[in-house]
């Protein structure tokens, strides 16, 4: 079976990491050197309170903050301010992930939101961008939710080929955790996974659609109403092979 045909949720094979984000990843059927990282947000030393997180560029839009939550298993909360279109975003330092032939990218996370119809959310990969939601970058791969509905959308677009987000057919629910994942199979295709199952409503099958520039891992939320709405992250994992 080809390596890119299975996805383990992005967690099981990660053996370790250091601050340079290099690690080994060992799925059941093969072992390859990978780089990437994993975080469960259980008292991470990177967290310094308010709107800072070592290793990430954190941008508050209005009065957004980060909150390390007192919750079993560890959660990080992205807390919007109390006005509409206030929020916060995180981009990991360094555009560390480059889609390329024979260099698959595996991403997974578990998230939830308090009010899915009143939040704009982006989760995935993007070039450096201080306005991830208000003015998205031309090169990105990731999941969206938009203020006004509970639809979960997915988008892959590049400077060479702007492609609109596609509705996965899955609706989010308030205060309900969901596992999201995607796998970038070199420059050939992108596969999406929701709660561990492949979502076949979305298919990228051409290299022109996939960004061929360095990308950063991103989480972003803006409130769609005058309330301090939230995006909460239980865990994330992202790895890419380099041999």
Produce a short descriptive summary.
The chain is an all-beta fold and 243 residues long.
Task: Describe the 3D structure.
The protein is an all-beta fold. The chain has a single domain (41-238), classed as Jelly Rolls, CATH 2.60.120.200. The chain is built from no helices and 18 strands. The strands form 3 sheets. Strands 1, 2, 6, 7, 9, 14, 15, 16 and 18 form a 9-stranded antiparallel beta sheet that branches. It has a 7-stranded antiparallel beta sheet with strand order 5-8-17-10-11-12-13, with no helix packed on it. Residues 1-31 have low confidence and may be disordered.
Features:
243 residues; mainly beta; Jelly Rolls; 9-stranded antiparallel beta sheet; 7-stranded antiparallel beta sheet; 18 strands; 48% strand
Q: Give helix % range.
A: under 10%
How many domain modules?
Answer: 1
- Which CATH-level-2 architecture? Sandwich
Task: Pick out the low-confidence regions.
Answer: 1-31
CATH topology: Jelly Rolls
Give the integer mean of the pLDDT values. 85
User: Number of DSSP helices?
Assistant: 0
Q: How would a crystallographer describe the biggest sheet?
A: 9 strands, antiparallel
The gross shape turns out to be globular
CATH class identity: Mainly Beta
Radius of gyration: 17 Å
Distance from N terminus to C terminus (CA atoms, Å) equals 19 Å
**Secondary-structure element order, N to C:** EEEEEEEEEEEEEEEEEE
